[in-house]
Amino acid sequence: MTIVAKILVRIVAIEHLIIFWIEAVAWETRGPKVFSTLPQSLFSQTKAIAANMGPYNELLAAGLIWSLIIKDPIWSWNVSVFFVSCVIVAAVYGALTAYKIKRVYHLWHKLTCLMWIAARRRVCQRLKLKAGDRLKLYLI
User: I need a labelling partner for 52 at 20 to 30 A (CA). Which of 17, 43, 72, 78 fits?
Assistant: First the structure.
């Protein structure tokens, strides 16, 4: 991955660690400040639900961090593609179903996708993969 792609993956991972902390640890204290459009009384009633959602964001962050520490460039690429894809699917689903999701949240995911495209070309060039062999980058 390129340096910019790695930075964007780190930003998305940090973002999901923050979301985990808000949902699993600070739902009743920071939650009302973050989700100011929701009524205050809702947070105490939904504490268990939020605590259940938190670990999913933590696992996404763990996968993204894992993709950054893998030494093999192909495996690093494949793992990052998988976890950022999971984040994108969750973001699209959230955008379609949630009340209001901030546009900044989606900006990082769009930038990360663009960096994937650029990084994929660099990985293929470094590994000297031909057009037909590029599919292996996703299948290995």
Answer: 78
102-112 per-position pLDDT tens digit: 555 555 566 66
- Whether this prediction's pTM lies above 0.70 is answered by no
21-48 per-position pLDDT tens digit: 988 888 888 888 887 877 888 888 888 8
- Residue ranges of domains in the chain: 3-139
How far apart CA 124 and CA 22 sit, in angstroms, is: 39
CB neighbours of 11 closer than 8 A, spacing ≥ 6? Answer: 108
Q: CA 109, CA 114: separation in Å to the nearest integer? A: 9
Q: Any idea what the Cα angle at residue 65 is, between residues 56 and 133, rounded to 5°?
A: 105
Q: Which of 87, 88, 80 is nearest to 63 (CA)?
A: 80
